[in-house]
């Protein structure tokens, strides 16, 4: 069936189902009034009990204003809803997380911040989605400062986490290290977050060359002063990266070890000639639906490891490997935050999972159908939340892994049971 036919048949991708058994009319007096008053009183004495006595602990809000949806751009909140429903389905199926799509009919960043902040009592976490740059950076930072639950922007942290997980193993396969010269092609939300995460992991920002639509970012670029006011996050990258003071694309690619591209779809956004200037390179061409350069062309030009954002090529780097496990981990630990250290812990867990199976040029990161990878990622994130002092629940890594495994497997079993009945 075609996407529109499926949507018309099912009239949406998700629904809400009760999980408390209901066997008779008398059950309502316990589930609702008057019995529920006892639960209300408990939470009124201690707000944190809302994580124990309600569904809040497993609820995530998917927030968007519809300004940057997939490759479609500014389609508005109503048109963004099918994407957010799809995201909610992935949250549930891959992570056992109850996610509620909430497209907002507001564009002003401070208004979005106020609306989302007011939702905190209802949710255990916030997932920002498809918000245009650069306001997505501002919104994320302010919400993380203001809220006492994890706030995540999947286009930033999810993509950056997936890139790091794949890169850890790609470097082992290709014989590269933290001293690599890296070309970051594209300066949108994903790659700006990737620069930050790679720096936190230990890469030298001075050995990163970032390229936007106008060319190479460097400290002497003509538009730098204007950038300071229009996009301070890109400005910070311009003045902290590119210690070579490179100004041309040929210089950027010459002798580079790694290319991370998240820019315009190809297939010729990145020509083979640029890859041939690199040194036994790792090439991540992550644009969808068509990568900036096809893997076969990159390999012909000398690439040792190639990854894309697509499932029909080896080494799919996709944030769907990251966000279900990250939220499973932060929700199980009842974490108040999700920071770069937790994303790195999750990326390292994914990389170790793949390494145990045996990495190669065509297998550097788990596939989305390798379910055990989500348990490993979730437990690593939960353990790091405990270590960072954010967790309300403090368990061992193995206990968190078993908790995640149980929750995700139960969810899949329920879905299969419902589908069999239907």
UniProtKB/TrEMBL annotation:
All copies of domain Malic enzyme NAD-binding, residue ranges: 156-386
Answer whether the UniProt record assigns the keyword Protein biosynthesis to this protein: no
Which InterPro entries has this protein been placed in? Aminoacid_DH-like_N_sf, Malate_Decarboxylase, Malic_N_dom, Malic_N_dom_sf, Malic_NAD-bd, Malic_NAD-bd_bact_type, Malic_OxRdtase, NAD(P)-bd_dom_sf
Residue stretches making up the Malic enzyme N-terminal domain: 11-144
Name the Gene3D superfamilies on file: Malic enzyme, N-terminal domain, NAD(P)-binding Rossmann-like Domain
* Protein name, entry field: Malate dehydrogenase (Oxaloacetate-decarboxylating) (NADP(+))
Tell me a Gene Ontology molecular-function term this record carries. Answer: malate dehydrogenase (decarboxylating) (NADP+) activity
The residue ranges crossing the membrane are: none
Q: Which family does it belong to?
A: Belongs to the malic enzymes family.
Q: What is its EC number?
A: 1.1.1.40
UniProt entry keywords in alphabetical sequence: Oxidoreductase
